[in-house]
User: Fold this.
Amino acid sequence: MQPIYIIIPVHNRKLLTLACLENLKANGDLQKYHVIVVDDGSSDHTSEEVAENYPEVTILKGDGNLWWTGAIALGMEYAHQQGATHFIWLNDDCFTKLNTLELLVDFLKEHPNSIAGAACCDAKSGLLVETGFKGKIRVKALEDEVVKVDGLSGYCVAIPASVFKQIGTPDANKFRQYAGDGMYTLKATRVGFKVYILGKAKVTLVEEKDPIHNFTNYVQNTKYRTFQSIFWNYKSPYHLPTQFYYHTYKYGFLIGLPLFTVKSLSWLVRFYV
Assistant:
């Protein structure tokens, strides 16, 4: 088995987590790579079901306070201790196509100072999801494209150990649930690594894609429409402290702070209107 570790952060989505692992098994990836499920305090017996059905999977546990970024960080630290040469982030609602992970790993072996993400297709609409960004523009990669980007969403991303050795793990304090993936890969580009989306490496997003890039849609679709749930809950992409850190890190303090201020005021006005 190759010293490559797939890290899957999970919380209370047992059926989805099991389906993700079954997809990896069907593609031969469960047999080819080490798989870590980081269960952040699930109450639906996710860990027990994974252990029973997939005994080859390593299970790490959190108490519910890891969130996405903390779970990824814990998995990377564990994998590094085991001698990992590469890490693969994989969300449990992302089903890899045959050979997708092999394509990502082979690309990194040919481009050792790089990070590579798969192209992601929404299962319901069949449309490509914009998984990367260049500056303020979100981008995607078509079938035969290799698109260089500033940063990536963490749906399915392969990272060499050299990145971990230079910049460590994603910042789980500032970016607990959102932006930890994009800001980590952006940090990697800022120290000299290159980041790409590979159009031939494909995953299907089987859960409905949250309309997180449209504030009005997000508010209309959220279960609880309160200030606390929209602006002060880690589950929300509009969690104000996360947005502050995101804007000031991505654009610098002089540009990021005014941009954050304008955006937050705009969200507040639309929230109360």
Residues 215-272 form one domain. The chain has two domains: 4-205, 215-272. The chain has eleven helices and 13 strands.
